[in-house]
Design a protein that fits this description.
mainly alpha, Cytochrome Bc1 Complex, Chain D, domain 2, 10 helices, about 45% helix
Length: about 210
Protein backbone atom coordinates (compact mmCIF):
# COMPACT_ATOMS: atom_id res chain seq x y z
CA UNK A 1 0.00 0.00 0.00
CA UNK A 2 2.78 2.44 0.94
CA UNK A 3 4.63 1.57 -2.26
CA UNK A 4 1.51 2.27 -4.31
CA UNK A 5 0.85 5.59 -2.61
CA UNK A 6 4.50 6.50 -3.11
CA UNK A 7 4.18 5.73 -6.82
CA UNK A 8 1.09 7.92 -6.99
CA UNK A 9 3.07 10.73 -5.41
CA UNK A 10 5.85 10.28 -7.95
CA UNK A 11 3.36 10.37 -10.80
CA UNK A 12 1.78 13.52 -9.46
CA UNK A 13 5.18 15.09 -9.08
CA UNK A 14 6.09 14.21 -12.65
CA UNK A 15 2.93 15.70 -14.08
CA UNK A 16 3.11 18.82 -11.96
CA UNK A 17 6.79 19.41 -12.54
CA UNK A 18 6.19 20.90 -15.97
CA UNK A 19 2.65 22.34 -15.87
CA UNK A 20 3.32 24.57 -18.87
CA UNK A 21 4.89 21.87 -21.05
CA UNK A 22 1.58 21.60 -22.90
CA UNK A 23 0.42 24.81 -24.53
CA UNK A 24 -3.31 25.39 -24.53
CA UNK A 25 -4.91 24.47 -27.83
CA UNK A 26 -7.41 26.44 -29.88
CA UNK A 27 -10.86 24.84 -29.71
CA UNK A 28 -12.11 26.74 -32.78
CA UNK A 29 -9.23 25.43 -34.87
CA UNK A 30 -9.73 21.97 -33.44
CA UNK A 31 -13.38 21.58 -34.43
CA UNK A 32 -12.85 21.03 -38.19
CA UNK A 33 -10.13 18.50 -37.40
CA UNK A 34 -12.59 16.26 -35.52
CA UNK A 35 -14.65 15.19 -38.53
CA UNK A 36 -13.04 11.76 -38.57
CA UNK A 37 -13.36 11.49 -34.76
CA UNK A 38 -17.11 12.12 -34.81
CA UNK A 39 -17.90 8.76 -36.38
CA UNK A 40 -17.04 7.01 -33.11
CA UNK A 41 -17.00 9.76 -30.47
CA UNK A 42 -19.84 11.97 -31.82
CA UNK A 43 -19.45 15.59 -32.85
CA UNK A 44 -19.61 16.86 -29.27
CA UNK A 45 -17.51 14.08 -27.80
CA UNK A 46 -20.42 12.26 -26.15
CA UNK A 47 -20.18 8.90 -27.88
CA UNK A 48 -23.39 6.93 -28.25
CA UNK A 49 -21.72 3.51 -28.01
CA UNK A 50 -20.18 2.28 -24.76
CA UNK A 51 -17.25 0.75 -26.63
CA UNK A 52 -16.03 4.24 -27.53
CA UNK A 53 -15.12 6.66 -24.72
CA UNK A 54 -16.73 10.01 -24.17
CA UNK A 55 -14.15 12.73 -24.84
CA UNK A 56 -16.23 15.74 -23.82
CA UNK A 57 -14.72 17.55 -20.83
CA UNK A 58 -12.19 14.77 -20.25
CA UNK A 59 -9.30 17.17 -19.61
CA UNK A 60 -7.14 18.92 -22.21
CA UNK A 61 -3.82 17.70 -20.88
CA UNK A 62 -5.05 14.11 -20.60
CA UNK A 63 -6.62 14.11 -24.07
CA UNK A 64 -3.43 15.42 -25.65
CA UNK A 65 -1.29 12.79 -23.92
CA UNK A 66 -3.58 9.98 -25.05
CA UNK A 67 -3.54 11.14 -28.67
CA UNK A 68 0.24 11.46 -28.64
CA UNK A 69 0.54 7.99 -27.11
CA UNK A 70 -1.84 6.53 -29.69
CA UNK A 71 0.08 8.18 -32.51
CA UNK A 72 3.45 6.97 -31.20
CA UNK A 73 2.19 3.46 -30.49
CA UNK A 74 2.62 3.75 -26.72
CA UNK A 75 -1.12 3.12 -26.45
CA UNK A 76 -2.14 0.85 -29.32
CA UNK A 77 -5.81 1.13 -30.34
CA UNK A 78 -6.68 -0.86 -33.44
CA UNK A 79 -9.63 1.32 -34.39
CA UNK A 80 -7.40 4.41 -34.45
CA UNK A 81 -4.52 2.96 -36.43
CA UNK A 82 -3.17 5.64 -38.77
CA UNK A 83 -5.88 8.20 -37.99
CA UNK A 84 -3.49 10.58 -36.23
CA UNK A 85 -0.39 9.97 -38.33
CA UNK A 86 -0.72 13.17 -40.34
CA UNK A 87 -1.66 15.32 -37.35
CA UNK A 88 0.91 17.76 -35.93
CA UNK A 89 1.32 18.36 -32.19
CA UNK A 90 -0.54 21.64 -32.71
CA UNK A 91 -3.40 19.81 -34.42
CA UNK A 92 -3.65 17.37 -31.53
CA UNK A 93 -3.58 20.21 -28.98
CA UNK A 94 -6.40 21.95 -30.85
CA UNK A 95 -8.48 18.75 -30.96
CA UNK A 96 -7.91 18.27 -27.23
CA UNK A 97 -9.02 21.85 -26.56
CA UNK A 98 -12.15 21.38 -28.67
CA UNK A 99 -13.32 18.21 -26.96
CA UNK A 100 -12.43 19.50 -23.53
CA UNK A 101 -14.67 22.53 -24.16
CA UNK A 102 -17.73 20.30 -24.50
CA UNK A 103 -20.07 19.30 -21.68
CA UNK A 104 -20.09 15.66 -20.59
CA UNK A 105 -23.46 13.94 -20.67
CA UNK A 106 -23.91 11.42 -17.85
CA UNK A 107 -24.30 7.80 -18.88
CA UNK A 108 -26.08 6.95 -15.63
CA UNK A 109 -25.62 4.18 -13.07
CA UNK A 110 -27.74 1.05 -12.73
CA UNK A 111 -29.06 -0.56 -9.57
CA UNK A 112 -28.25 -4.27 -9.46
CA UNK A 113 -26.69 -6.92 -7.26
CA UNK A 114 -23.28 -8.42 -7.93
CA UNK A 115 -21.54 -11.59 -6.76
CA UNK A 116 -18.32 -10.97 -4.82
CA UNK A 117 -15.49 -13.41 -4.18
CA UNK A 118 -16.97 -14.59 -0.89
CA UNK A 119 -19.89 -16.00 -2.86
CA UNK A 120 -22.46 -13.56 -1.54
CA UNK A 121 -24.41 -10.96 -3.48
CA UNK A 122 -24.09 -7.28 -2.64
CA UNK A 123 -25.59 -4.13 -4.07
CA UNK A 124 -23.33 -2.95 -6.90
CA UNK A 125 -23.97 0.75 -6.31
CA UNK A 126 -23.06 0.43 -2.64
CA UNK A 127 -19.90 -1.50 -3.46
CA UNK A 128 -18.93 0.94 -6.21
CA UNK A 129 -19.50 3.93 -3.94
CA UNK A 130 -17.36 2.39 -1.22
CA UNK A 131 -14.47 1.53 -3.54
CA UNK A 132 -14.51 4.93 -5.26
CA UNK A 133 -14.69 6.95 -2.05
CA UNK A 134 -12.74 4.77 0.37
CA UNK A 135 -10.81 2.23 -1.67
CA UNK A 136 -10.15 -1.17 -0.10
CA UNK A 137 -7.53 -0.97 2.65
CA UNK A 138 -7.25 -4.73 3.05
CA UNK A 139 -6.38 -5.16 -0.63
CA UNK A 140 -4.23 -2.01 -0.76
CA UNK A 141 -6.57 -0.17 -3.13
CA UNK A 142 -6.54 3.62 -2.64
CA UNK A 143 -9.68 5.71 -3.05
CA UNK A 144 -10.29 6.97 -6.59
CA UNK A 145 -11.06 10.40 -5.15
CA UNK A 146 -7.38 11.08 -4.52
CA UNK A 147 -6.64 11.56 -8.22
CA UNK A 148 -10.03 11.95 -9.86
CA UNK A 149 -11.78 14.12 -7.19
CA UNK A 150 -14.84 13.26 -5.08
CA UNK A 151 -17.18 14.17 -7.94
CA UNK A 152 -15.09 12.50 -10.63
CA UNK A 153 -14.06 15.79 -12.21
CA UNK A 154 -10.40 14.76 -12.52
CA UNK A 155 -7.34 16.96 -12.04
CA UNK A 156 -6.45 18.98 -15.14
CA UNK A 157 -3.04 20.32 -13.98
CA UNK A 158 -1.92 16.80 -13.05
CA UNK A 159 -3.35 15.28 -16.22
CA UNK A 160 -5.81 12.99 -14.43
CA UNK A 161 -9.00 12.63 -16.51
CA UNK A 162 -12.58 13.35 -15.64
CA UNK A 163 -14.37 10.06 -14.99
CA UNK A 164 -17.84 11.33 -14.13
CA UNK A 165 -20.44 10.22 -16.65
CA UNK A 166 -18.14 7.97 -18.69
CA UNK A 167 -19.58 4.74 -20.11
CA UNK A 168 -19.41 2.01 -17.45
CA UNK A 169 -18.38 -0.65 -19.98
CA UNK A 170 -15.52 1.52 -21.20
CA UNK A 171 -14.23 2.22 -17.69
CA UNK A 172 -14.43 -1.46 -16.79
CA UNK A 173 -12.46 -2.40 -19.90
CA UNK A 174 -9.72 0.14 -19.13
CA UNK A 175 -9.36 -1.20 -15.59
CA UNK A 176 -9.24 -4.76 -16.91
CA UNK A 177 -6.63 -3.74 -19.49
CA UNK A 178 -4.51 -1.98 -16.86
CA UNK A 179 -4.76 -5.06 -14.64
CA UNK A 180 -3.71 -7.39 -17.45
CA UNK A 181 -0.98 -5.06 -18.70
CA UNK A 182 -2.67 -4.58 -22.07
CA UNK A 183 -2.72 -0.85 -21.38
CA UNK A 184 0.56 0.49 -20.05
CA UNK A 185 0.73 4.23 -20.74
CA UNK A 186 -0.02 5.35 -17.19
CA UNK A 187 2.55 7.50 -15.36
CA UNK A 188 4.68 5.47 -12.91
CA UNK A 189 2.32 2.49 -13.34
CA UNK A 190 -0.20 4.13 -11.01
CA UNK A 191 -3.33 2.69 -12.64
CA UNK A 192 -1.73 -0.69 -13.18
CA UNK A 193 -0.82 -0.75 -9.49
CA UNK A 194 -4.42 0.01 -8.53
CA UNK A 195 -6.15 -2.27 -11.02
CA UNK A 196 -4.01 -5.32 -10.26
CA UNK A 197 -5.50 -5.34 -6.75
CA UNK A 198 -9.13 -5.07 -7.88
CA UNK A 199 -11.51 -7.99 -8.26
CA UNK A 200 -13.86 -8.34 -11.21
CA UNK A 201 -16.77 -7.37 -8.94
CA UNK A 202 -15.00 -4.23 -7.72
CA UNK A 203 -14.17 -3.19 -11.28
CA UNK A 204 -17.75 -3.68 -12.47
CA UNK A 205 -19.19 -1.93 -9.42
CA UNK A 206 -16.91 1.13 -9.45
CA UNK A 207 -17.35 1.56 -13.21
CA UNK A 208 -21.14 1.50 -12.78
CA UNK A 209 -20.95 4.04 -9.95
CA UNK A 210 -18.74 6.40 -11.96
CA UNK A 211 -21.14 6.37 -14.91
CA UNK A 212 -23.70 8.23 -12.81
CA UNK A 213 -21.33 10.25 -10.62
CA UNK A 214 -21.74 14.02 -10.82
Amino acid sequence: MNKLLSSMGVALGVTLAAPFAVAGGDAAKGQPLTAVCAACHSADGNSALASFPKLAGLGERYLLKQMKDIKSGARPIVEMTGLLDNMSDEDLANIAAYYNSKVTQLSGSKDFNILVNSGTEVNALELGTRVYRNGNKEAGIPACTGCHSPRGQGNEPAGYPRLSGQHADYIAKQLQDFRAGRRANDEAKVMRGVAERMTDAEITAVANFIAGLN
